[in-house]
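Fig. S4 source data, part A: sequence.
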Amino acid sequence: MSERWLRTLDGEPMQLSEETVSAFANSLRGALLRPEDAGYDDVRKIWNGMIDKRPALIARCAGTADVLEAVRFAREHNLLFSVRGAGHNIAGTALNDGGLMIDLQPMQGVHVDPTNRRVRVQPGVTLGALDRETQVHGLVVPAGIISETGVSGLTLGGGFGWLTRKYGYTSDWLRSADVVTAEGEILTTSPDSHPDLFWALTGGGGNFGVVISYEFEAVPLGPTVMAGLVFHPMTAAGDVMRLFQMVTSAAPDELTLLLITRLAPPLPFIPQEHHGAPVVGIAMHYAGSLEDAEPWARRIKEFGAPLVDTIQPKPFRVHQSFLDAGQPSGRHYYWKSDYADAFSPELGEQMVAHTSAMPSPLSATLTMHLGGQARQVAPGASAVAHRDAEYIVVIQASWLDAAGTDANVAWARNYFEAVQPYSSGGTYVNFLNEDDAQDRTRQAYDTATYARLAEIKGRYDPENMFRSNKNIQPLVPAGQR
């Protein structure tokens, strides 16, 4: 009888008989892929091409029963396993080497109840697919800024984007969630049912189980909004950054700005003589009436002599996907991020200097204005921390193949060190790289929040089965170990 090598939770090699693996495959409605199977390499690919790992088995879950089978199989054999939603996470925690990948991508159902403004979402759904269904009814679940982002990972880490200043984090609109626990049970969580576990899901990441269904409350929006982008040459950076600082300091909650520094891509709407040259841009979105948005849009559009101006009324779905081209699946990515209480001239100077020195023309820095309603949730009411931050600065190194890894990672790290004097501390858990996920996970939470998450982890996953993530070590009372 042939054997198959896998890895245990502790990383040790182990063998399972092909009979055991085949029995597991037969228990699933979806496919179980081995490395030798056709399609295995395509399925194991995730958004960040820098992460290249090879699970021994991939369970392509077709529904809840498959997820239950996969978790129970991993538990029975003490297998290392990881969970993939849409696979858009920078750290690539969806993948593992030699274990089981529980693949939720096939689970892509979305059901909208427009009367009660409730949306039921399965874990393989992307923001683009979610917006497609909700915008039919003039509704939206407040989420991110890239349409290929997965709803699941975004929500479990908190989730911010164009609507955060008006409506708060994505997890603030979560109303219930169905979870497969480490014990192989299905729990429905909400503020009234397993409220401790529900609280942990509002920012604590994938530490507590496999979420198989999310119920959100949606809010009215659009479908037409005032939104778009202006680009200026980097020689105007000082003036453009002062505009960004002034507008964000006076902005109503409906207005969100995003400052972008990068090298101009060779796109037809950018003058050819500026292709490859450093540029600075301001993207805006207004979550209110077009009439109310007009003076804010005009202030940005009429400033200086922009190279590009796309700010105008447009469908929200168009705006939600306009940054997708800068973050396509398969490129190599390495990010660093930090919060800042103020956008100072010195911070801007570092952005100009490091943008001009970037080794890849595909990299960028994105600085999003936060605050607004994100601050209004009472301390401790959610697992999302650092709600008082005014800005988040995201250094996004991006390149095409492994040959550029050393230079681009070094650029991002040096850049990150240079902006540290202007940081307010902390970090956003969804933006942690693979190499700093463990060291900086604690920094994503305040002390009290992390302690509470560790205690809940100790109750629902005391053996730390769910560890292929931005891991929170379980706090288990000595008498229960």
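Fig. S4 source data, part B ends here. The chain has three domains: 3-103, 110-220, 224-439.
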